[in-house]
Each structure stands twice: as C-alpha cells, then as structure tokens.
Design a protein that fits this description.
With about 240 residues, this protein is mainly α. The protein folds into 2 domains: about 70 residues, Arc Repressor Mutant, subunit A (Orthogonal Bundle), CATH 1.10.10.10; about 150 residues, GntR ligand-binding domain-like (Four Helix Bundle (Hemerythrin (Met), subunit A), Up-down Bundle), CATH 1.20.120.530. Helices cover about 75% and strands about 5% of the residues. It contains 9 helices and 3 strands. Strands 1-3-2 form a 3-stranded antiparallel beta sheet. A hairpin with a 3-residue loop joins strand 2 and strand 3. It starts with 8 loop residues before the first helix and ends with a helix.
Length: about 240
C-alpha cells in the first residue's frame, strides 16, 4: 500500500526561505540602482528571471512594500517610487531623531570587539569610496558601520525602523556621497564618532552623529533640487526647439 506524503514543517520553511531569497535579490537591485526609480515590477517577469512561481514573488513584493522600498499601486502593481527632495529630507530627519537615541543607549555596552569591527568596516569603506566603480557597496558599508555602533542598544523595534528607513534612503546615501563630493567629510566624521564612542563620550558622539545625518540630508536635498531644476529647464528648451 502506498502512502501519500504529508506536509511537514520543512515545506513551510522552504517556501519562506524562497520568499526571503527573492526579496533579498530585489532589495539589492533596488538599493544598488539596478532597478531604477519609476520602474514597474512585474510578477511574471520576476518569476521567470528567478525561476520560481509567482507566489513567493507576490509575497516578496508585499514584504518590500512593508519596508517602504516599493509601492503597490492599484491598477499599476508594484513600482519603485521616486523620492522627491522633500521625501529625502524627511527620511534623513527621521534618522537624525532616532539614531542618536539608539547610539546613546548602545555606547555604555560596546566592547573592544565592537570597536575593532567598526574600525575594520571603516578601513574597507575608505578603500571602496576611492573606487567609483564600487559605488554599489557604499550604502551597505555605511549601514554596517552605523549598525555596529548601535548593536548594543538591545532595541529591536528601534533597529527595525531605522533599518527600513536606511533601506528606503540607501540609494540616496550613495547618491549624496557621489554627487556632493562628501566622501572626505563622511570619512572624517565616521572616525570622530568611533573615537568618541571609545571614550564613552555619549553626549558629544550623539551630537556629532545628528549633525552628520542632518548635513547629509540637507546637502543631498539641495543637489536633487538643482538636478531636477536643470532637467526641467532642459525639457523646456527641448520643447521650444521642437516647436520652432
């Protein structure tokens, strides 16, 4: 007599892992700019690309929507939203409010191993920043450095919110460094923040971190405004030439 296989917990784990794998790949492509803002994400095309069914793709898109990386719009489906200068300013304002608070709670509990890890990340960060062909790594290393310093706060919900905000803005973190030539300032401030954490000077470290984030947001907002104004001007010139 043959027995029909019965579902086990393994099947649920496999399906969840597949959803997470698809979400991870799409997240990386969006953050690295391989899927540009304004792009529409088609479930059938993604399923074919990754050779999976549409079910894990649909669940992955819902996950990315919850993280704020994409927007699911009625009659259009999933799209990668374009952030306006005001949106960018808001994201960095949220970071400037939350991250110093988490750092303040983390500093008393940071270990020498944490400091060594943060220092190693900074060394790699400096190396990668000197290579524009490695721009896709800049945002990730920036997050790795900051999250290492926040790691001893034991504030899981805080960290989940901060991670989502960083994911939403990571394209723009890289853009800020690239467009505003803010690499040297970022490097200097990162090293200063690390040393202040070593000295357990939470007040000064948090103040510098807040200024560090606010400057990045403001400088990027100004660059985006200039770029969009230039694009509108160029579009107007093109339209006038077409009419003449």
């Amino acid at each position: 007599m043959s027995l029909s296989p019965t579902p086990t917990s393994d099947s649920a784990i496999t399906r969840q892992s597949l959803t997470s794998a698809v979400a991870d790949k799409l997240r990386d492509q969006i953050i690295q700019g391989e899927i540009p803002e304004g792009s529409q994400l088609r479930q059938d095309a993604i399923a074919a690309q990754y050779q999976v069914s549409r079910i894990p793709v649909r669940e992955a898109l819902r996950q990315l929507d919850a993280e704020g990386l994409i927007a699911i719009i009625p009659n259009r489906g999933a799209v990668v939203p374009a952030l306006s200068p005001d949106d960018v300013e808001e994201l960095f304002a949220i970071r400037a409010l939350l991250e110093p608070e988490v750092l303040k709670r983390s500093i008393p509990h940071l270990t020498e191993e944490d400091f060594s890890q943060a220092e190693a990340i900074l060394r790699r960060y400096v190396s990668e920043l000197s290579r524009e062909d490695h721009v896709s790594a800049w945002g990730r290393l920036n997050w790795d450095f900051h999250s290492t310093l926040y790691s001893r706060a034991n504030q899981a919900r805080f960290m989940a919110i901060i991670r989502n905000v960083n994911n939403s803005g990571e394209r723009y973190t890289r853009l800020q460094l690239y467009l505003t030539h803010g690499i040297n300032r970022a490097n200097e401030e990162h090293h200063q923040i690390l040393e202040l954490c070593r000295e357990r000077d939470a007040s000064t470290a948090c103040k510098l971190l807040r200024q560090h984030i606010q400057y990045a947001g403001q400088s990027l907002k100004e660059v985006l405004q200039e770029r969009r104004a230039s694009a509108q001007l160029a579009a107007g010139d093109h339209a006038r030439r077409a009419k003449s």
